[in-house]
């Protein structure tokens, strides 16, 4: 653990805190920023313990919950939270962003005729573009569970029937889900996803084999009843500072691009 860098960073942020964002007495202060007493009270920790953290005393290590309370008290942004958790070699908690920015929506709309969508850190679809809706249906307004990427992979009959190598793709999804779940093992929603798909034979066998995966480029061959065969290349990228993911399913050949364009003109 890097006690000195952690303590220096917390002390610096406390001393340079903008008091206009805090409900603290408006009085003349001998030093700028917040006092240790004020931060300790907001973070529900003792003043002495906070002092030892700031001083970088060897062996004084905050728990994940205590560190998170301090970051909230000092109004850290996501990058600052990740930084201090990295210093103590702890996994930062996932920050749930329930809104998709207009810039991100414009990004997926600009990919038309390619299908594209946004997922949150629980792999639940938050927004889709026109091409996605025409190819897979409109998901907006549905319950979070039925908008979840993992749930859909195993419960969408259209997807199971149309994806030429559904089993291979499903095993990849399970591996990604295991990694995401490991980051928030107490998350009730992620457990609900697991509980909803655990009896599927492909899910169960892959889960039992302890497969773990990062996001990887996927080559999808879809058999669409109207358009015929479609070759799509799927890539998933994280949107910095949001714990959201953007998924692009770009046409892999000229024929697929022409069919997707035709779909969007219908």
UniProtKB/TrEMBL annotation:
Residues 9-81 form the HTH cro/C1-type domain. CDD domains: HTH_XRE (cd00093). GO terms for molecular function: DNA binding. It holds the Pfam family HTH_31. It comes from the Bacteria. PANTHER family: BLL4672 PROTEIN-RELATED. This is XRE family transcriptional regulator. The lineage of its organism: Bacteria, Bacillati, Bacillota, Bacilli, Lactobacillales.
């Amino acid at each position: 653990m890097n006690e000195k860098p952690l303590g220096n960073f917390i002390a610096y942020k406390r001393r340079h805190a903008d008091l206009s964002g805090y409900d603290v007495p408006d009085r003349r202060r001998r030093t700028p920023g917040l006092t240790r007493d004020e931060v300790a009270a907001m973070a529900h920790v003792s003043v002495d313990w906070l002092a030892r953290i700031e001083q970088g005393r060897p062996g004084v290590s905050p728990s994940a919950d205590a560190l998170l309370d301090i970051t909230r008290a000092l109004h850290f942004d996501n990058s600052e939270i990740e930084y201090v958790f990295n210093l103590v070699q702890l996994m930062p908690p996932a920050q749930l962003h329930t809104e998709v920015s207009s810039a991100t929506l414009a990004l997926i709309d600009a990919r038309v005729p390619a299908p594209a969508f946004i997922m949150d850190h629980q792999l639940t679809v938050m927004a889709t573009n026109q091409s996605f809706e025409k190819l897979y249906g409109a998901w907006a307004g549905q319950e979070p569970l039925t908008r979840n990427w993992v749930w859909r992979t195993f419960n969408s009959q259209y997807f199971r029937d149309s994806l030429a190598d559904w089993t291979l793709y499903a095993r990849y999804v399970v591996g990604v889900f295991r990694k995401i779940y490991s980051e928030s093992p107490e998350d009730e929603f992620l457990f609900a996803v697991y509980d909803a798909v655990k009896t599927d034979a492909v899910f169960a066998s892959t889960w039992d084999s302890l497969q773990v995966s990062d996001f990887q480029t996927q080559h999808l061959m879809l058999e669409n009843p109207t358009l015929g065969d479609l070759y799509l290349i799927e890539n998933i990228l994280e949107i910095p500072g949001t714990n959201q993911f953007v998924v692009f399913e770009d046409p892999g050949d000229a024929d697929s691009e022409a069919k997707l364009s035709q779909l969007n003109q219908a």
